[in-house]
Amino acid sequence: MSRLVIVSNRVADLTNTAQAGGLAVGVGDSLRQRGGVWLGWDGQRLKYEEPPEPRIRKMGPVSLATIPLTQQDYDEYYLGFSNSVLWPLFHYRLDLVDYKSEFLEGYRRVNGKFADALMTILQPDDVIWIHDYHLIPLASELRRRGCTQRMGFFLHIPFPPPEILAAVPRHKWLVECLLDFDVIGFQTNTDLGNLQHYVADQLGCEMSGNVIRTGEREVISGCFPIGIDVDAFSQMAQRPNEEVQIETHRRRVLRRKQIIGVDRLDYTKGLPDRLRAFERLLELYPEHVKNVALIQIATPTREEVEAYADIRRELEALSGAINGRYADFNWTPVRYMYRTVPRDALAALFRVSQVGFVTPLRDGMNLVAKEYVAAQSMDDPGVLVLSKFAGAAEELREALIVNPYDSDDMARALNRALTMSLEERQERQQALIDRIREKDANWWLKSFMDALENRNPVPA
Ligand code: ADP
Ligand code: G6P
């Protein structure tokens, strides 16, 4: 078996259990099983340039290779092109795109840095798997430096329709960069279809099934929905710490139910709309007043980008307003926490919550939805309420699927979830758990590697 070299903007500390972000969790779960090298940014912002050799740290079967960036790289490549241009654009939020030509220059420069660092550690038989929107030009940069190894790319976030993509300068260049990979993978069939339309209409490429012909080369495109390590998460969920046990006991005695939301505090996650939907539940179905609470855990993320600071202020005002209106001496309707929680505590909280409320306005996959399902007990499972705009909705069809822009629709679904019979909850849970087991972290790694190592076309 070839050595697997994974590259992403950020690497995950595999020993730290409190890490937010689907990429870190999904890649971490997969790489632990296969072993290999994982190269990425070390999180530092230096005032000066450093030589390209990465720093290597061994963590069991995985070698973490990290490089620092400069403050200018951080501003232009990370905050700038990656998170103020590509992130909003790919999540269909043209109103939030803030394009500057120096961002694009920084993006190209840092992709060059990643290529230089990789070239110092690559071995001839390595197979390279590059992740996410920060590193779209990396295959082109590597090929320019003479790299001939097989290279795959996986996009963790949505790929937008051609009309949206065309709003950003140099969009053709971006997609041509993608075609320098051997395999390009997406979370959903919608994303895959969007890319295929773009390359056929705008670049005039020929398609045969999922194979894209570009000049002399053939590029395999496919849909590989990311999954989680279901057993590991389910086991964590069965070991609640003392705090969770006491709180759950208290709620049982008081016959109170809990709705849970867990996200990075990102404007794509639909958090204000979610809070409004919870308020609407209390308005439309007053029987839930004092009997149901919403716990929302939101991890700080990309706080230097203005849109993130705005969404934080909005959420804090909204949770304060709902509590001001409804709270009583012994009941707080919204418990809002702005922090990262250890994974095992999260798993246990999912298990004791009657509703998993996952309502992004647009999301590549959304692993929280899969984690909520993995954490449930078959004896008394909770109900997943899921946005139709999460990639996960393509698979998790037995969830209650909602429109995250429609607070009445979400309030009705919450009420239905809170009053659903045990039999229906069990039926839905069985179907959902079967689906997340079928396409878990291991399946994701194996199916992508099969396409990349054996160049097996993915069925259309
Ligand atoms: P994204 O990749 O956009 O952040 P996902 O739902 O796919 O969205 O992945 C988020 C991951 O981060 C999940 O594994 C989730 O459990 C974790 N996570 C999100 N928020 C928190 C938090 N507040 N504390 C701990 N982990 C979190
Ligand atoms: C999403 C993206 C990842 C990113 C993560 C956390 O999951 O797909 O690429 O790493 O969010 O965001 P951050 O900007 O902190 O790396």
Automatic annotation (TrEMBL):
Keywords: Glycosyltransferase, Transferase. Its EC number is 2.4.1.15. Pathway: Glycan biosynthesis; trehalose biosynthesis. The keyword Glycosyltransferase applies. It catalyses: D-glucose 6-phosphate + UDP-alpha-D-glucose = alpha,alpha-trehalose 6-phosphate + UDP + H(+). One of its GO terms (molecular function) is alpha,alpha-trehalose-phosphate synthase (UDP-forming) activity. Pfam families: Glyco_transf_20 (PF00982). The keyword Membrane does not apply. Homotetramer. Probably involved in the osmoprotection via the biosynthesis of trehalose. Catalyzes the transfer of glucose from UDP-alpha-D-glucose (UDP-Glc) to D-glucose 6-phosphate (Glc-6-P) to form trehalose-6-phosphate. Acts with retention of the anomeric configuration of the UDP-sugar donor. Belongs to the glycosyltransferase 20 family. This is Trehalose-6-phosphate synthase. It comes from Chelativorans composti.
